[in-house]
């Protein structure tokens, strides 16, 4: 299975258009220690021709232009054969609007995400005017916190969606009290190589269920949004904490780094969905050096690997 990182930043991207925090300031100065990143999305393929997008970011146009694997091979077409959504947040779904010329398009998501995208942020009904999104339900709902499924154009790939405790978007009736199916992690096994990836860009809480899949995977790509839970408040750029938004901060006791350090030593550990305020985006920072010393990688746009 081929894995391609289209965008490694959290909502807003890096730099964020209206932000002049030290990271955003420095990346605009072409600092050698800072690298721009677009908003969170990865693509998966078995044959290198047919790709599943995991999340469709607002930056999708630039992401598609930057990755020849996804360019059309015929007069009209695309390497994208379908889209999977891990939640209904703006940074993960807005790119569907830019894919309208390719409708009808298959979209895998849970009933909760489908519901938010049919009401508070009505992408499904809107795109009916262009040929529509064909909903492919992922069965995480009520008390079903694990759902196994497959995707027709990804042969020999077994997908398991598992519920994450994070948050629903501000336009969801479940904001502040999310339920099963608002956020999912993916555990993806390539049956040919036997290798597996755990992808969880919105991991707010290290539940036993989430830890089971993180422990089982050869490669984990997890939530690297914030270094400190109150980082946005400290910088004066926001009022929300990571916990309020549904993100587990990296640093400190019980933080993501500590969890990652407890995984088997053979596990490749990669952070994705990184907020522009996060000091790990400055290669010269103490935070970036701490990660490096622990062997934890920071995803970047264009990162590729094969499992
Ligand atoms: C999140 O990951 O919490 C959201 O994408 C935040 C946002 O709206 O940018
Ligand atoms: Mn996000
Ligand atoms: Zn910033």
Automatic annotation (TrEMBL):
Q: Where is the Metallo-beta-lactamase domain?
A: 51-274
* Gene Ontology BP term (one): pyrroloquinoline quinone biosynthetic process
Keyword Cytoplasm tagged: no
Which Gene3D superfamilies would you find in this protein's record? Ribonuclease Z/Hydroxyacylglutathione hydrolase-like
Report which residue ranges the record marks as coiled coil.
none
Tell me which UniProt keywords the record has, alphabetically.
PQQ biosynthesis, Transport
Q: Which domain of life is it from?
A: Bacteria
Q: Give the matching CDD domains.
A: PQQB-like_MBL-fold
In terms of Pfam families, this protein maps to: Lactamase_B_2
- InterPro entries referenced in this protein's UniProt entry, alphabetically: Metallo-B-lactamas, PQQ_synth_PqqB, RibonucZ/Hydroxyglut_hydro
Checking HAMAP family in the record gives: PQQ_syn_PqqB (MF_00653)
Family per similarity comment: Belongs to the PqqB family.
Protein role: May be involved in the transport of PQQ or its precursor to the periplasm.
Put simply, this protein is called: Coenzyme PQQ synthesis protein B
Question: Source species, please?
Answer: Vreelandella nigrificans
Which taxonomic lineage is given here?
Answer: Bacteria, Pseudomonadati, Pseudomonadota, Gammaproteobacteria, Oceanospirillales
